[in-house]
Amino acid sequence: MSENLSPEEMIRANAEMVLAVARNEFQQDIGFDAAGVRWLDSYIQGLVDKGEVDTSETLCDNLGSFLGTCIIEAYGGRWQDTEHGWAVVLDGDLAVFPFNKVLKHLTEGAEDSVLSLFNGIPALRAHASGAGDATPAAIIEPAEPPEPGPQSLMSRIGGLFRRR
Fold first, then answer.
1. What is the pLDDT along the chain (164 residues), one digit of tens a residue?
2. Which terminus of the chain, N or C, has less C-beta within 10 A?
């Protein structure tokens, strides 16, 4: 099946898998929005806090697909394969790298949270457009980490998308 999908379709399929796992395994009815990023941030931080960090490409691909899809749904933009890997491109040259951000959150902890990227996009846009410093209209606060089930999220979702 995955051989017939474009990279963008594979990213979307991975993002939808994360939605399904959140609903089915964690009873979290989230979407591709700020609440979804808040849940993702809490999930990742919960792994970090418990020392259950898994930096596999599969996990980063799935969670990064979800993060990028949330960014596109909330702020616009599109997926693009760049010389630095897959990015969400906003407003011309402004690009964010959701897969890298997930990996950084997993390895560096809350200082590099996915929620900070999501909340910082309005300021990045303002800076890129020359409008100076701007603060996000609404900063979404992190939530309490969800309780993981008996298996990790990575063991529940497959990796359809592979970075180069």
1. 567 999 999 999 999 999 999 999 999 999 999 999 999 999 999 999 999 888 889 999 999 999 999 999 999 999 999 999 999 999 878 999 999 999 999 999 999 999 999 999 999 998 888 865 544 444 445 555 555 444 444 444 433 333 33
2. C
Other Cβ atoms less than 10 A from the Cβ of 57: the count is 14
Q: How far apart are CA 154 and CA 95, in angstroms?
A: 26
Q: State the pTM of this model.
A: 0.81
Rounded to 5 degrees, φ, ψ at 42 are: -65, -40
Degrees, nearest 5: CA angle 125-31-135: 25
H helices of the chain, where?
A: 7-26, 34-50, 57-75, 98-108, 114-129, 153-156
Q: How far apart are CA 74 and CA 72, in angstroms?
A: 6
Q: Calculate the dihedral angle through the C-alpha atoms of 35, 19, 98, 36, rounding to the nearest 10 degrees.
A: 0
